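User: I've been going back and forth on whether these two constructs are worth ordering. Before I decide, could you fold them both?

Assistant: Sure. I'll take them in the order you sent them. The first construct and its structure tokens:
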Amino acid sequence: MTAAIPSFTGDASPYGGGDPYADYRTPGPSGFPFAHLADLADRRLGAGVIAANDEFFAERENLLKPEAAHFDPEAFGHKGKIMDGWETRRRRGTGPDVPHPADDDHDWALIRLGAPGVVRGIVVDTAHFRGNYPQAVSVEATSVPGSPSPEDLLADDVEWTVLVPRTPVGGHAANGFTVDCERRFTHLRLKQHPDGGIARLRVYGEVAPVPEWLAALGTFDLVALENGGAVEDASDRFYSPPTNTIQPGRSRKMDDGWETRRRRDKGNDWVRYRLTEQAEIRAVEIDTGYLKGNSAGWAALYALDATSGADPADHTTGWVEILPRTRLQPDTVHRFLPADAPAATHVRIDIFPDGGIARLRLHGALTADGAERLAARHAELEG
């Protein structure tokens, strides 16, 4: 049975100097059980905090910064302590006889997911908010097509689904919540009760693309995160995660790709990907951008069709080579046109002996069966 996620409540100790993360509360070395999934609220996918009712002390946009929250004990502005997060002013009651906020008082922020999908876990991170974090948080979600405005989302006819009920949280802590709701969502509403500050919001889940959009594109990147591709497993995640290889755009620096530790045996490293659905791969790009003295030396690609009953986790059966072991150059975009690549649901890249790649692009089109299954899944998630 999966262990329960630790729950944190109460203030953290005041900052006493030194490493501000030394007393930061987390679930431990194993992390959250859903953290291997894509962050649907990643700015690189186009996510944004589109509105908030209050951001007096610190801007709402800080919630989705990709890096960990920074703390500078000497940073003060004309409104007070400058915090790397979203922080609202202190709520008050109605008068001297009722100085405290009402039980249902809260602040809110609207988040547009960069990649709509099924949410499996949420982290409300209160790093460095030690005595000024919210007493409790809650998270709701909705699915609204197109590009709705904040006014559209706040209209009375919009249906919101509770993903995280009002739950006490702790200061200076990674507060994690599992989500069990088999629905596709486009937007979240984060509430903090009654007020306070939150450093970061992470929304882990599975991308659920719009089938009509992919059909209109025809040929598209079958493994791209934004199109529903995903990393299923990898041999090594020591320096940077393999999910970076299917992020949008080109890598901008070395740790924006996937890099493994140095091997001292005779093995090799690999990443296994799940494609959007069953598809035919027509063109391949392997990009080693910014990996100069540590790019992979060689790479090979294999495809598998799991609809035949083959197990993708078994790397010895069912895999077909679509790119033989090929020399890679550092800091270079390599392009290949595989001949007679079979229909596939999964692809594995093997690199030799270690190192890394920045991006993998697999351009192609869904098969008729793949398109049909994707449309049926989309209809199911839309309810």
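The second construct, handled the same way:
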Amino acid sequence: MSEEKLVSVETQTEYSITTGQHETRIFFKVYVEAAKSGLIADMGAERWQTLCILASFMDERGECYPTQDHIASRLGVSRQTANQRIKRLVEYRWQGRELVRAIRKRDEHTKRWENTRYTVLPISQITIFNTEPEAM
């Protein structure tokens, strides 16, 4: 199996001469190997789309804390549907390994549930800010 990157997320900063403002944009880069390896076909379109939306929130450690409402809005589905899709993604395994981990805990002081912390793991082949994906 190839050890090429399948997907990366890159940032680009642009300067607008009309407004004098800098704007940073974030881009996903999907490599042909993502299809060749069978990852996308095995995941299916729904999980792949959900993974990409979740990854759009992540930091350089792969961690993100989006609300279900944010995920639902970006997926164009109801909150309940987004919750079901996230659950299926978290349960999914590629070559026996998880791609996304979800941790939900209560605030120590208020005892209220915090936003779920999702971690997009390196085996997912999605990277951001020059981190490296894990070899497949």
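Notes on the second construct follow. The mean pLDDT is 83. The radius of gyration is 16 Å.
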